[in-house]
Amino acid sequence: MDAALAARTAEAGLAPASALACEDYLVAERLTKRFGSFTALDDVSLSIGRGEFVCFLGPSGCGKTTLLRAIAGLDPQDEGRIVQDGRDISALPPSRRDFGIVFQSYALFPNMTVLANVGYGLAAQGQRRAAVENRARELLELVGLSDQWWKYPAQLSGGQQQRVALARAIAMNPGLLLLDEPLSALDALVRVHLRGEIKGLQRRLGVTTVMVTHDQEEALSIADRIVVMNRGRIEQVGTPDNVYRHPASLFVAGFVGRMNTLPGTVSDAGTVAVGRALIAADAAQRFPTGAAVQVCIRPEDVQPDVPTLAGTRLATTVRGIEYLGSIARVELDAHGLPLTAELSDTALRDLALSPGMPFAVVLPPSRVLLFVRPAAA
After folding, report:
1. Which pLDDT value is given to residue 22?
2. Predicted structure pTM score
3. Contact (Cβ atoms closer than 8 angstroms) between residue 52 and residue 225
4. Whole-angstrom Cα distance, residue 296 to residue 311?
5. For 321-367, what is each residue's pLDDT tens digit?
6. Nearest CA to 339 among 318, 367, 366, 310?
7. Using an 8 Å Cβ cutoff, are 255 and 294 in contact?
8. Which regions of the chain are under pLDDT 50?
9. Residues of 233-258 as b/e, b for ≥16 C-beta within 10 angstroms?
10. Pick from 89, 56, 72: which is nearest to 222 by CA?
11. How far apart, in whole angstroms, are the C-alpha atoms of residue 48 and residue 84?
């Protein structure tokens, strides 16, 4: 870690691989942004801790990129305010805000070498050529491209170009790093490798980071906290485990990961009726008897029946198997109820399942989630 970044980290009270800081570094208060009659951000409020890695996650048009661009000052909000490190930046132009940004398109200068691209911002500040070159070489070493300094962007792979864009973004020692879907244009294997590198680099530098993504797996694997957005509003903010295991709404349950979703009716404080089946659900105690609900359970929680497992036992028939390597997705019919189970490759081989076979499963009551059923469902 260079001296300037080390000083910034020490001031914040962070170790390079520290746990999340409690101090708010970035605060958005009641942000609203409209494009004509369309409301892209609808009264959005959010706090991000110093040194935290936060992902804005949601489908296209949900407002996640608009929120990031409002923070950067590229699309200023119509209402509300933004405070960064105790300074109100709501009305400041991008040039007076303390951030580095990496775009999906990389936005590298094609007529400049890798070294010149990384040092561009420093050179524009009027820093001495030797200082700019030393800093650029240091950052290329940090992102593993020290031997590529002489090349032009067109001579690099997509993953290498993204590393250059990342090095350029942190060259100015920003207090905030903004990543706008930085991995979406890359091949799957490159994405997986590079997201690990980005997370490791962020931890080493201690820089507060916000990344926009529509990829649930990406957000779950890289973020300290996830901000799930829908229709210009925040649906849930939480750790990856909290968002995945305890979704706050039916939208989050369906968007983050896979989910079996079936209409049901609460029978009593511990049971919900789904078709002809009565399913034990701890969550039923939060609803009145007779309430119309959506019953949700993750495919990995539809488990093979073993005597030691507590829960609702269902006799099902295998309708089909989608083999995905380390796991298999098994489509089931439980007397008219469609269910999907996910099994490890080992479990699939041990069970020797095939289409048409009977398959007894257990639904643990603690894993059965209930949400108010929408009127049209």
Report:
1. 55
2. 0.90
3. yes
4. 15
5. 999 999 999 999 998 999 999 999 999 999 999 999 999 999 999 99
6. 318
7. no
8. 1-21
9. bbbbbbebeebbeebbebbbbebbbe
10. 56
11. 10
